[in-house]
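Technical note accompanying the year-one report. For the benefit of new consortium partners, we illustrate the data format agreed upon in the data management plan: each record pairs a sequence with a structure-token string. No post-processing was applied to the example shown here.
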Amino acid sequence: MLSQAVLEKISLDTIDSSGYAFQIEMNFFTWKNKFRIAEIPIVFTDRQRGTSKMSTKIIREALVLLWKLRFVSIFDRTIS
């Protein structure tokens, strides 16, 4: 859960992603601003019907985002 202090520090206008990639981007900016990140384990039960929303497009978006954030992290020291 993001605290108010984290949300006030992160420039939300710089967040380009949505969906799963949004979580990656928010964690990245939280980490870059030196806030603590904690993992809270959850248990998912196996899907009984329907299909997964995880697609090749979503996976590709996440991988591209990781490289973009790495590049920005190296070359832009003013990131927030």
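Partners are asked to follow this layout when depositing records. The first helix runs from residue 4 to 9.
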